Amino acid sequence: MCPLFRSYLALQTTYALFRGYLAIKTMCALFRGYLAIKTMCPLFRGCLALQTTCPLFRGYLVIKTVCPLFRGYLAIKTLCPLFRGYIAIKIMCPLFRGYLAVKTLRPLFRGYLAIKTVCPQFRG
Questions:
Q1: Are 47 and 64 in contact (CB under 8 A)?
Q2: Closest-CA residue to 112 (of 13, 17, 122, 93)
Q3: What is the pTM of this model?
């Protein structure tokens, strides 16, 4: 009865779609359908891949903690219409120390988008 996954949490290691991997089936409203955690996924070696049919994140939502492109950072690759391409959340980014930097290929925000919640320039 995990608060995050209200209902049941089942572990299926022989799930046909993710053979040899760890698939978490849940009825959680946030992640409708299957939530698969693939720690040894050939596509994302050494990374953590989350596949979900959640309406918010259509297709794959990939969390790569050791992503070569963003070493030591957290990169989220998604097919979500809202965030096309890569979204890199770097909480320890040297460029934005102590802040939250979001790198996206979204046409509106080409390059880096820095969100500084405790920025002296933007109080509050």
A1: yes
A2: 93
A3: 0.20
